[in-house]
Specification:
Length: about 70
């Protein structure tokens, strides 16, 4: 899933999300949703990944922060 597609879906349902600065660096980007604390991390595709858009960010990991 492309980063912009997930963000568009969150925006469509008014789900607040912020950049997760702790996991955004280099060729990696992360967002965290509020109030659910779900974190999504996006990466550029690896050499062996077969994707249509090599220069864009794809969802690599999604997890829920718990106390």
């Amino acid at each position: 899933m492309l980063r912009e597609d997930l963000i568009a879906g969150l925006d469509a349902v008014d789900c607040r999300h912020d950049i997760n600065g702790r996991l955004t660096f280099g060729e990696q980007s992360s967002i965290i949703t509020q109030p659910a604390n779900v974190c999504a991390v996006f990466f550029t595709p690896g050499r062996d990944d077969h994707v249509p858009h090599r220069g864009r960010l794809y969802l690599g990991v999604i997890h829920k922060h718990t106390a």
